[in-house]
Amino acid sequence: MEDPRANGERSHDNNNNHLSKKQKLSSKFISDSEIHQEFAHHQLGISRINNGSFGSCPASIIAAQKRWQLRFLQQPDDFFFNHLQKGILRSRTLIKSLINADHVDEVSIVDNATTAAAIVLQHVGWAFAEGRFEKGDAVVMLHCAFQAVKKSIEAYVTRAGGSVIVVQLPFPVHSEQEIIAEFRKGLAKGKAHGRKVRLAIIDHITSMPCVVIPVRELVQICREEGVEKVFVDAAHAIGSVHVDVKQIGADFYVSNLHKWFFCPPSVAFLYCRKSSPDPDLHHPVVSHEYGNGLAIESAWIGTRDYSSQLVVPEVLDFISRFEGGIVGIRDRNHEAVVKMGEMLANAWETHLGSPPHMCPSMAMVGLPSSLRVLSDEDASRLRTHLRNRFGVEVPIHYQAPKDGNDSDRVTGYVRISHQVYNTVDDYLRLRDAINLLLEEGVTCQSLHKDK
């Protein structure tokens, strides 16, 4: 459970209500100029509205990381024997409190969500290979699951005899009920002909297109339908939406700390619910710690740079400089990205890809149909053109219409992000760049010819 006091959020108890106005004004939070200094290493002249892909790390955290790196390089043996495991345990303990886990043993620190997916899917693949699961039993996933997750399913599950059911989610999406209805259909398909659904993989926030999924409701449906295990891929969640692993109720939950939580790349936590422990859950990189539990295995996979896993305390110090802490940051990011998304949609006479409450710190905004984004290749060319010509970094999504008629439909969407370093000018630059392309009569096909 996120503690408002730990996150710097003002308490509303009676004592604080009696604070004088002078006392309240004495609190000092980070200023705009200080935020600018923390991210002054960002390349000048670029509107970075793609925090979702790689995140962003402030200068004070980069400095903390360098101190850890130097400590290792100065005396590796002392670092290894006296500091590394203590430091990782401290980070795990802080994460445990952030996500409301019951015990620190439920929290492992890994490189990223891709590594966590490999851990979970390796475990499932072994069960198929060793005959504990019947050939043809199913894994259910959303069609917009991250590509690395799809490849892990291919590498570990399908080659061992498991089948895969892909749930097609609607987009644009208008309500959570649309998602819930399609998910129920996918589970029914997975259970057809006497099969069992051994694992459901659910995104908390889909990457592309970006939508907040009603994850708690989908996990509950899985329990009702007898799904054996549930893995929530929440790569974008921590720092962007509220995370309470006990409320969500999944067996496995992973979120990157370098996307929306200001850690340097790359670091993620993998939560494994202790009420359903499994000693056969292992890190795919086998070290001398094999067999000592996933958290310990993950804390040592050979000589490498562990500094990104050790700076969680300093990151929490950075976050505490903002009014409201992580709660305040994510609320302001959400409000800002919705406001900027609606501004762009109005300027281009299009729409958002989902209702505002289903946007995290990212939003999908329809592009004018006259740009003729008609394929993934078109989306890639337009993205490159915006970067090279206008200094705008933003992902673009191609969405084919269901009936195949794309002549006057919105088939291209930008995925805009908002993080604390962004300003209104970043989004105005994107707006004006698209408007100039429209004035020039540019289409994605003409960009291909120019190339």
TrEMBL record:
Which keywords appear in this protein's UniProt record, sorted alphabetically? Pyridoxal phosphate
- Which SUPFAM superfamilies does the UniProt record give? PLP-dependent transferases
Q: Where are the transmembrane segments?
A: none
- One Pfam family hit: Aminotran_5
In this chain the Aminotransferase class V domain maps to 86-275
Give positions of region: Disordered. 1-23
Q: Where is the composition biased (Basic and acidic residues)?
A: 1-15
Q: What is this protein called?
A: OLC1v1028140C1
What the entry lists under Gene3D superfamilies is as follows: Type I PLP-dependent aspartate aminotransferase-like (Major domain)
Which InterPro entries does the record associate with it?
A: Aminotrans_V_dom (IPR000192), PyrdxlP-dep_Trfase (IPR015424), PyrdxlP-dep_Trfase_major (IPR015421)
PANTHER family, sorted: L-CYSTEINE DESULFHYDRASE, L-CYSTEINE DESULFHYDRASE-LIKE
- Judging by the UniProt lineage, the source's domain of life is Eukaryota
